[in-house]
Amino acid sequence: MRRPLKTPGIVLILLLVLACSETPEPQAPAQPDREWWKEAIIYQLYPRSFKDTDGDGVGDLKGIIQELDYLQELGITAVWLNPIYASPNADNGYDVSDYRAIMSEFGTMEDFDRMLEGMHQRGIRLIMDIVVNHSSEEHPWFVASRSSRDNPYRDYYHWWPAEKGKPPYRYSLFDAAGDAWKYDSLTDAYYLHYFSSQQPDLKWENPKVRQEVYDIMRFWAEKGVDGFRLDAFQFAAKDTTYPEFPEGFEKDFIQYYAMQDGLHEYLKEMNREVLAPYQVMSVSEGAGRNFEDAHMLVDADREELDMAYAFDGVDIPKYGGYELDTMKSVFGRWDAQFAEKGWLSIFLSNHDQARMVSRWGNDSPEFRRASASLLNTFILTMRGTPYCYYGDELGMTNIDFDSISDYQDIAALNGYQKALSEGADMEAFMQQLNFSSRDNGRTPMQWTSGPQAGFTEGQPWLPVNANKDRINVAMQENDPESVLNHFKRLTRLRRENPALIYGDYALLDAGHPKIYAYTRTLGDERILVLLNFSAEVADFTLPSGMDQGEVLITNVSPVPVGMLPDTLLPWQAVVARLP
Ligand code: NOJ
Prior knowledge:
Blueprint: H1 10-22, H2 36-39, E1 42-45, H3 61-66, H4 68-74, E2 78-81, E3 85-86, E4 98-102, H5 109-121, E5 125-130, H6 140-147, E6 159-161, E7 181-184, E8 189-192, H7 207-223, E9 227-230, H8 254-257, H9 263-278, E10 281-284, H10 291-298, H11 324-337, E11 345-346, H12 356-359, H13 368-381, E12 385-389, H14 410-421, H15 426-436, H16 473-477, H17 483-496, H18 498-502, E13 504-508, E14 515-522, E15 525-532, E16 538-539, E17 550-554, E18 567-568, E19 573-578
Parallel strand pairs: 1-2, 1-12, 2-5, 5-9, 9-10, 11-12
Antiparallel strand pairs: 3-4, 6-8, 7-8, 13-14, 14-15, 15-19, 16-18, 17-19
Helix pairs in contact: 7-9, 13-17, 14-15
1-deoxynojirimycin (NOJ) binds at residues 91, 94, 131, 195, 231-232, 285, 351-352.
């Protein structure tokens, strides 16, 4: 159990020393700003799809407990757990009806306590997803709020009385009509929901709402959780005069929704009330409208959040492909902006994306293994905290649904209705959905080649990918060349080499059309990373002196470890130590 720090100062220093000495492996050179969350390798775990132990087809906390040794063997050091709170599941837990209770499908609070204890025993920290831009429409606050205009909870949400006419248009990301105001006849008023109508937005301008949220966060911090990921939080502050936005604003809605006045004050208050006293790490979802916003969120001396989670990178691949050049420049720009101050997250996928290897790599049988390993190499050798999404350590792929009835995700289903009502080209819509739907990234974890991939003994909530016979943990554990074993080697490499954590990043041969090459340098330690982002053999010329590097890891055999090759095989990744 964690208690808030009453007196920073000496206690803080002691705790920091303790935290550093707990850090599993390498002795990084003295870093004035060492933090466990900079050194962490985060595994994002989607509990609904990880492991089911009671046969209801939905993953549960007991399933996570069963697989704690698996997590430890991966070499990850923290878990970001998607929401596990009580929820009617309109949006798979991102619609919370009780922030202090565990969703019954997932188990009990006792299971949670055991899971957390088991993680901590294995040196794994836990980051909880806090969903407080909105609640569920079934949350007692909203039930009370909508019951009458003078209910004490009325001002917990955004209401617009209908006698004032229709409210100024607001775009909703998930609504079938794209409209973020929903009319509620009970009190003849509209309420605001940036996501689905089952997810009414909380009114952060009301200080009581903010105190309620801090209390909830304290509840979990007291239990000993180590960090919070703030869902959609950049949208939390709103101009409650609800001004008209220019026509077509929805095409660039981030400019109007993100980082509105008040947000930084709320974050500073949250920091004072919870984050600092409990010493928990924090990461925001989304990094604002520009680099300046991103810095204002996470510059340490501003005392708001710890780590930025920017979308520019993960948004690059589109149906039809992407340019390596764009990837190099986007990741390079973010790195340069954060070279001196602030800290970034590095990820190529999450639960809101289709599978990494299908978007960024090549999921054909020929290249899936190599390209998935190459992408993991990228994530685990870049500067910034790596976030590895469950199943990507195996190279799990998109599932290839062909009918809308196969999809479960509210964004897909309501998006389909919207496209239909707008007379869109539905064939093109379905192709796009097949490539990019979030359900692709949420199919059950593939543990074995057995029935339902060993995920459940029942009927899984979302179908298991048919390729579970070829892609699963059991097979990969026994194959030294597997994506899984390569992933384990990479986590170890990162933990043992401080240059991969704190070292400067420098791009090499910027214009190379196939190879993404860079170095990571910390003091005398220099590591070279070469990634062939193509299905062809690619040559490269290294600056003089670098060709003497010693290969530490490669994903394609048979490169003799120790010698730096002068061509890379298709999707080959090489990490070498430079003299
Ligand atoms: C962002 C989450 O990552 C996503 O899964 C969710 O649907 C929305 N926020 C709404 O909570």
